[in-house]
Structure prediction request, 96 residues.
Amino acid sequence: MEGRARRSLLLVFSLLLLITFSGVAEASGNAKLRPSDCKPKCTYRCSATSHKKPCMFFCLKCCSKCLCVPPGTYGNKQVCPCYNSWKTKEGGPKCP
Prediction:
């Protein structure tokens, strides 16, 4: 009986750990987005700029390639390495 209780406790503990770590990955922004998630994420990302049209164009392009959009309206690009490292021909950042 003791062996069965120990296995049950181990199973419950493992499930709790799995749930905890899956939430951490999603909260950090490293979780891959679905292509359908790009438009709402980019709409928020570009909400604070006065250049909404080009911001949305490049954000959607970057999101569709990288499946990631940094949190917030500015900065935080280190959360999405692909998004952060994509550069223009001139060497500037391609993604807003």
Summary: The CA atoms of residues 45 and 74 lie 7 Å apart. The two ends are 59 Å apart (CA to CA).
